[in-house]
Amino acid sequence: MDCFIGESELFNKGIGTKMVKEFINQIIQEDAPDFIVLDPSKENKRAIRCYEKAGFKSRSEINEGTSLVMEFNCSLNRPSHSV
């Protein structure tokens, strides 16, 4: 998942978190997975914080420690329908 908010004045307003939560809702409705997994760069602190606020948990490191494996457990984290 790559999410871009191109206008810097829109940073830190919760838009990215809302976008990720909506994407989670869509995936769950369409595919009903048990888990959603992503792997942001450890240097991308803004993305990691956004994913954490959306309900992802860090599980391990990959790519020689440069990326995190983050997991959203769909059975434990039922996203809200109002984003």
Give an overview of the whole structure.
This protein has helices spanning 15-31, 45-54; strands spanning 35-38, 57-62, 67-73. By secondary structure, the chain is α+β, with helices and mostly antiparallel strands. It has a domain at 36-83. Strands 1-3-2 form a three-stranded antiparallel β-sheet, with no helix packed on it. Helix 1 packs across helix 2 (45-54). The radius of gyration is 13 Å and the shape is flat.
In a nutshell, what does this entry contain?
With 83 residues, the protein is of the alpha+beta class.
Q: Strand-and-helix sequence, N→C?
A: HEHEE
Q: What is the 3D shape? A: flat
Overall average pLDDT: 89
| Classification by helices and strands | alpha+beta
- Termini separation: 18 Å
Strand content: 15-25%
> How many helices?
2
Features:
33% helix, alpha+beta, three-stranded antiparallel sheet, single chain, 20% strand, 83 residues
What is this structure's SSE topology?
Layout: H1 15-31, E1 35-38, H2 45-54, E2 57-62, E3 67-73
Antiparallel strand pairs: 1-3, 2-3
